[in-house]
């Protein structure tokens, strides 16, 4: 009953399996976010000579949960001058795509958790662009100068890095001959190498663009607390704020999954079970993000924009052309 | 309703159509321009769902990427760069508006009559438009084997649009 | 994986949806005063056309991909159209401080 | 070109280092002998010379005393307003008998300003607490005099 | 019914859950749990500790629009690159030439924007 | 034009605003982007205290900036008129609270000059050691907060590790961690406790290693370089015109250090360099802090070698200090520039007037000039590098 992916026609039990799969992914997503935040605080704390959260639960393991509960019982303040409807709606608009992209990430070889879409990679890129609306509208609806600048910058940044991100995938698609993420994993397993090797340039572009797309240091301009105080979510409180945070960390997880799938062979790997390999690769990505955050200062907004268009985009195009030419003449 | 087969795709289609129409009506009846932009995003997403329902996965994803993603953002930026609080005045029953409304309703009725009067093909059962490929691959093959010239014209169109829009939108340096 | 197989949606319903969407868009384009909304209404009409194109690619006499490819081109053209249209609007707004169609109907600025 | 890689190395090398966090309420900081916390006061030693009140830059000390049967001045009240005390240590510097001293009490937060008005009894209690906590730090002269009284 | 529908049904489920979670948390559970004590000070907009003055909704520099514009153009390019890349192994050299021409055209657009200082922030 | 007004009316712009709009249109018919007043502070994370910067921006270009100060004003100068000289010392702790030892010294030094006091050797050495340690602590905090402003959070937490060691040493020698009140007119309050000098000696190599670590972590980072190179640049002439001093002056290549140019205390006995910048930009200002810490360590090392083993730490000072009638000024090289105390005395035990030359306050005057015409993204980088301490600016 678990194998609903090829079940035709779909029986009731298959459907139940599907719902269970979705619920499990939701639970995994929320769990990963909770403990990513915890791990981030711990790892960055360790890198800074601190011990990180340690008061709630053993080793502070319940810290993030305590934070969530705190946010849930916080008053929900909507500023008087804000555009109420959009203000309330913006976090939801931002959140939904962040969860939807998880539908196509192949977590392991055979499981009921992945939609086997033929347009998988494009689906991810297309949906992640919708989050920009939420961020932008959130900043606009707050009717606050910092929030508006933060929202606009955020949108401009995410737009700018969406392009190299999308183009860096093309090299992988060229090699695998499919947009389907499952096929890409299998093509890597067949070819015997992870695409990080032949697509190293593409991988670098992807990594930089992904970091920027996730609004993480050194590209965390939108929420630059030392300039814009907190960027687009300056006016958000309680659980609405939590949804913006949830969105960011879900994307961190999803982007890690995407990177593992496209460049690191997804769930393939020797000895260990597939899901564990996948988890290791995703965590490597997440750890790298923490590491960057502990080290880097923030890039300036004009440099940020020109970097995307003047460096990353040409590099991505170059990578694409080289891959295509090599593929055409080698095969 | 009128002898429709209540298959799951049909139900999905009805739900999606309802979403599209509600969003479309909202898109032209809200007063705040930014709400209109948001509602039109709903229409775009609904259309994407219709395409996917019809098996045109790639066009559906393209619709989300270009329309719901890029174009809606562009519209929002345009609103934020002009008059944020722009509002449509409440519908005034001017002659022009009434004429437009009557004309549109008449057009709709005529179109509906035409649609009803014809018998439409239902697609060859079992015909696979993708010829055994996955949809994006099939679209790619069609695009690059049969539509080479239009494809290159697209790049020309894009570059012309880019240049034109840059010239129009760029602020002159002396304003700084 | 090769597509949706046969689709049990009657062509009439799809065409009707497209027709209504087209009329709504047309009404908007004719009556609205804000240039942005006029452009948005035109997008509605384009989407209506796209629905028809995709519908016929699936439900036509000889189903093939031409409709989908055309829809792709339409989307592209729409993107170019709105980009230039809004750029025009920005340029006009800069000079006239208005984004209303009514204020822009003079031949000489 | 890749100078930031050096920086990444630095942060990574810090990861396994020993952590410096002090678990404050569980582990109290170790204060050196000269630490200037809230005052402690030994009434027996005070000769009511008023020097501490005069040197205080913020005038937060107020005291009064009476002459006893031996014509010796005895302290009656000794109040420090901790609202304005800046813990500058000048009062203990001028005290000829070392009756006003600094202790290692440093937790001063309270819900009311009234609680910050410390009187002689509080200060003496603080002295007793300090003696219990640091038996090795009490000066012999001080012990002697305290014993006499 | 085919795997195609199953996959998209799964996506629909994700959409529904994605809607359900925030609505449940913000509009159903939230109001029960959280206090609501609005006060004048709370409801004002943050402005570095001062009374907010002026409207935040002023117009910004058109460069934001220009970046969005570039984004649209290159997004369309990406859109065409995807099916090309996916079907490239069946297309051969002619498709490579086609795409090179396409990329060169857009690169010209990029260079134009570069020269016109669209890519500069200041 | 009439049409524009009509449009504005229809948009519901009130009549008084209409005037405003029209004015702008007339002024500059081609203006594309509206101007906006942006408040940075008083409650803003990057203003290092309660400092308000009112910035007028168009788009993202700063047209003008106006620092609004005084949120931390405590009237130190006025209070001093009612205090004996010894009593003023704890107040100086609170001026530049990151470099309280230097403030202590500056006041004591001025009074000592006025009185012509002889300071015991050991006291002089102790003073130099704590002052240079204080300078290191202060520079460390600059590096930490500046990098925090620029978005890197680790240096901020690293600097506190070294600073903690310095502060602990101060705690041992004078019993306080921030407001030391250590110097006295004619010497210092306490001699170093047993083992204290060895602790300082052990600190020096540790600190050298950490400076190298900061160099690795920060100096080479491309993002940091891009954000600070050529930003907030000015030349020596401008710096002198505005009366800048300290690193803000030296970054332009002008080697001006009072420890060398007008030696006070026993600074003429030490070998050390005056590091200077070349371009006068934010990067130079950052890098000079790093280099100056090395020089301070050199001074500390030499002082540790030269300090006499024992001796008095407080000279012969009258019980009640009365400064002879007259006006006295002396300045020292503070952590942020020339820190001077100007005393007008009428011969009583309290100053008739005390004026403090506060380097932060003077350096701040350049800020509007630096910000004008800049991109708003550079605001924080420039503001941070000017290195103000609000306790000193507002006094």
Q: How does the SSE layout of this entry go?
A:
The complex is a heterohexamer of chains A (331), B (176), C (109), D (149), E (122) and F (395).
Chain B (H helix, E strand, L loop, with lengths): L7 H22 L3 H21 L3 H25 L13 H23 L17 H12 L1 H22 L7
Helix pairs in contact in B: 1-2, 2-3
Chain C lengths: L10 H21 L3 H25 L6 H31 L13
Helix pairs in contact in C: 1-2, 2-3
Chain D lengths: L2 H12 L24 E3 L9 H5 L5 E7 L5 E9 L8 H5 L5 E3 L14 E2 L1 H14 L6 H9 L1
Antiparallel strand pairs in D: 1-4, 2-3, 3-5
Low-confidence stretches of chain F: 10-32
Q: Helical region count of chain E?
A: 4
Which of globular, elongated, flat, extended, rod-shaped describes the shape of chain F? globular
Helicity of chain E, as a percent range: 55-70%
Query: Which percent band covers the strand fraction of chain E?
Result: under 5%
- What percentage of the residues of chain F does DSSP assign to strands (E)? 5-15%
What do we call the CATH homologous superfamily of the largest domain in chain F?
A: Cytochrome-c3 Hydrogenase, chain B
Through-space gap between termini of chain E:
56 Å
In CATH terms, what is the fold-level topology of the largest domain in chain F?
Answer: Cytochrome-c3 Hydrogenase, chain B
Return the string of H and E elements of chain E.
HHHH
- The total count of strands of chain E amounts to 0
Beta-strand segment tally of chain F:
8
User: What is the top-level CATH class of the largest domain in chain F?
Assistant: Mainly Alpha
Q: How is the quaternary structure best described? A: heterohexamer
**Which class of secondary structure composition applies to the elements of chain E?**
mainly alpha
Described by strand count, sense and barrel closure, the largest sheet of chain E is: none
Helix content of chain F: 40-55%
Strand order of the largest sheet of chain F: 1-2-3
Radius of gyration of chain F: 24 Å
In short:
The complex is a heterohexamer of chains A (331), B (176), C (109), D (149), E (122) and F (395). With 122 residues, chain E is mainly α. Chain E has helices at residues 3-33, 40-43, 63-87, 93-115.
Task: Explain how this protein is built.
The complex is a heterohexamer of chains A (331), B (176), C (109), D (149), E (122) and F (395). With 331 residues, chain A is mostly helical. Chain A has one domain. Chain A has 10 helices and no strands. In chain A, helix 8 crosses helix 9. The longest helix of chain A has 36 residues. Chain B has 2 domains: 86 residues, NADH-ubiquinone/plastoquinone oxidoreductase chain 6, subunit NuoJ (Four Helix Bundle (Hemerythrin (Met), subunit A), Up-down Bundle); 43 residues. Chain B is 71% helix and 0% strand. Chain B has 6 helices and no strands. Chain D has 149 residues and is α+β, with helices and mostly antiparallel strands. Chain D is built from 5 helices and 5 strands, in the order H-E-H-E-E-H-E-E-H-H. In chain D, strand 2 and strand 3 form a beta hairpin. The longest helix of chain D has 14 residues. The N and C termini of chain D lie far apart (76 Å). Chain F has 2 domains: 67 residues, no CATH class; 319 residues, Orthogonal Bundle (Cytochrome-c3 Hydrogenase, chain B), CATH 1.10.645.10. Chain F is 49% helix and 12% strand. Chain F contains 17 helices and 8 strands. Chain F has a 3-stranded antiparallel beta sheet with strand order 1-2-3. Chains A and F meet through helix 9 and helix 10 of A and helix 6, helix 7, helix 9 and helix 16 of F.
